Amino acid sequence: MGELESMPALVTPGQRARRRFVRNTPAVIGLIWVVTLVALVLLVVLCPSLWPYSFETTSDAQFQPPSYDHWFGTDIHGRDLLTRVLYGAGVSLLVGLAGALVAVVNGVAWGAIAGYMGGWVDSVAMRIVDILYSLPSIIFVIVLVTSLEGVFRGWLQARFDLGPQAVGFSRLLFLFAGLGAISWLNMARIVRGQVLALRNRAFIDASLALGAHPSRVILRHILPNVFGVIIVYATLTVPAIILYESFLSYLGLGIQPPMASWGSLIADGAGQLNPVRTYWWLIVFPAGMLVVTLLALNFLGDGLRDAWDPKGRQDL
Predict the structure, then answer these.
(1) Which sequence spans correspond to the domains of the chain?
(2) Is the CB of residue 75 less than 8 Å from the CB of residue 59?
(3) Domain covering 85-307 in this structure, CATH number
(4) Most buried residue, 9, 105, 240, 255, by most Cβ within 10 Å?
């Protein structure tokens, strides 16, 4: 009994990853920042009565600098900039999460099938990925939005009678699809490599010998073993998509008024720069929130990657 009591308790991979993550201070700070930001966005969007200012309400307090009443100042229409930054955070995070979801679904399906099937299927699938890699990704999204978005918006207006709302809906849908379509290539390569390493394992051969269908093997035995890798790279995909969206919105090709994102807010602030007077808060606060959030998401992704690394320290 003494020997059994002295043996260390077994630690599951999930528990080991959680302990590693908690000891990663930048990752924990990044998680706290993201959770706090999401909570504030939900408060502003879902409970506007609890927030002192409205997203669209204008006032006579144009171009007020940061103060006790308006922490981030006001814009050209007298709207509270903090409220608009939080609304923009909601739109940017929504685009990032939706684009990452599209990238995960496409990349995992493509990489898992290519890696498991092997042979000519794997060769053809990876050559397609190589061809898509050679295309300028941001140009692809710009062409997609400018060429097809108008047609889709017209169809929405005619079919559902949405009116001006169709502009925002159609642009959001095209951003989801376009940004997700250029972000799944890395995921496909990573999942393919993991599947290639797993498909010849003994437990896979045993499952096939018992008559399991290949689709069941992939869904029940292979993908659960690469779940940690998928979560890590999905987390790293979100800030990349947010940055793409902000760049497109800054160019006027992303989110359109009355909606707002960090990119469009930065563009509005840049439009107010002039030699006479600089309303610095209009560009500093949206850009600062964008930079800090991207850093937090990258720290979070790096922390998850280190936590789920099977070659990491085993003394936790």
Answers:
(1) 85-307
(2) no
(3) 1.10.3720.10
(4) 255
Structure tokens at 19: 């302990």
Phi-psi domain of 63 (left: phi exceeds 0; alpha: psi -120 through 50; beta: other): left
Note the pLDDT tens digit of each residue in 46-99: 888 888 888 877 888 888 889 888 899 888 888 889 999 999 898 889 888 888
Structure tokens at 134: 């050679």
Q: Is 80 helix (H, G, I), strand (E, B) or coil?
A: strand
13, with CB counted inside 10 A (0-12, 13-18, 19+), is exposed
Q: In this structure, are residues 70 and 64 in contact, taking their beta carbons and an 8 Å threshold?
A: yes
Location of structure tokens 């999930």: 14
Element holding 116 (H helix, E strand): helix 81-117
Residue showing tokens 């018992």: 210
Type of residue at 266: I
Residue 66, SS3 per DSSP: coil
User: What's the CA angle centered on 172, arms 169 and 174, to 5 degrees?
Assistant: 110
Pull the structure tokens for residue 63.
Answer: 């171009």
